[in-house]
Amino acid sequence: MKKNKKGGVCVSEKNAVREFMTAISIGQTIYIPLVCAAFLIAGRFGLNIFLGALYGSTVMLLYYFLFARATVRAADEADPETAKKRIRAAHSLRMFLLIALMGLGLFFSTDYAPIIIFHWLPIIISMLVPRITIAVWQIINRKKNADSDSEKEGE
C-alpha cells in the first residue's frame, strides 16, 4: 500500500473507498423508494415500511463503512500476520454489531416490542441490497476498464 508523506493512506486508496461507499449509498438510496413503491402497489404501505427500509439501510451503510475502514487500516500494516489478525477482529466486531442492530430492528417489528416501529421485511431485504449494488458496480467498472483499454489499443 502506498503512503503519503504524513504516513496516511494514499489518495487513490481513499478514492477507492469513497467510490465503494458512494456505490453502496446510491444502492441503498434507490432501494428505499423502490420498496416503498412495491408495498404501496401491494396496498400494504405504512410508515413502518419506510422506517424499516431506512433503519436496515442505515445499518448496512454502517456495516460497509466499517468494512472499508478496516480494510484500509489492515492494508497499512507492514506485517501480513498483523493485518490478518486486524481483519479477523474487525470482521468479528462487524458481525456482532450487525446481528445486534438487525436483531434490535427485528424485535421492534414484533408484537413483543412495546411499540411496533418497523416492518421486518424491508429490514431483511436491505441486507441483500449492498451485494446487488457491489455486483452492478463491478460490472460498470469492468466495462469502463474495457472501454479505456480498447481506446488505448486503438491509438
Description:
- By secondary structure, this protein is mainly alpha-helical.
- It has helices at 11-41, 47-76, 80-107, 120-126, 129-154.
- The chain is built from 5 helices and no strands.
- The chain is flat, with a radius of gyration of 19 Å.
- The two termini are 31 Å apart.
Number of strands: 0
Return residue spans where pLDDT drops below 50 for at least 5 consecutive residues: none
The main pleated sheet reads as: none
The class by helix and strand makeup works out as: mainly alpha
**How many helices does DSSP assign?**
5
Q: Topology of this structure?
A:
Elements: H1 11-41, H2 47-76, H3 80-107, H4 120-126, H5 129-154
Helix pairs in contact: 1-2, 1-5, 2-3, 2-4
Protein traits:
155 residues, mainly alpha, 5 helices
Brief description of this entry?
The chain has 155 residues and is mainly alpha-helical. 79% of the residues lie in helices and 0% in strands.
